[in-house]
Here is the input.
Amino acid sequence: MVDDKVSGWFLTSQPNAPGALSIPGTKKEIEAIHKLAVKIGVRVLAQEGSQVTIDESLKHMQDYSSVHLACHASQNPTEPLQSRFLFHKGSLDLATIIQQNLKNADLAFLSACQTSTGEEKLPEEAVHLAAGMLAAGYQRVVATMWAIEDQHAPQVASDFYTHLWSHQKKSGGFDGTHSAYALHHAIQQLRQKLDNSQQSFLAWIPYVHFGF
Here is the structure.
């Protein structure tokens, strides 16, 4: 069970990480989630870009049971624990996250590219960012298999949280038990807005859920 004192969300968008393409939709994504959380009384902290350092992010991950990272990510197939999330002020790698004491970790939403893609040549030994977050203690993880559309990600996230938080506790805390159902709901909402083209198929199929 998650301690009610830390039940809540740490949200961060990193739209302009050095050396990476700009993803302005991540800012809109986090702003929409934060607004919704405040409206329904969920404990939440949102920080954008240079507002937060890597060390501060790690501290917030201890102080909040769940995390939403809207940013670029990089897989390292030869050194899997060096796979990382790209921030304005550095990068957050799996090795560092796993070393943290995340005893109340609940749900991680990784709104980044290829966060569940392992090494094709070593399928039995594949370690990807989603698996790394499970190893760090998160009970359930939402991730993507390949690049996601910056234009669709904010709406998917908004629909996901609207459904998930409809099951929140009266205390203002919540658990992620319904996260798989929430992702299914969000993807169904997106599919209803798209046609049957290959491009539309590639927009919704990347989202995956791990854990229980």
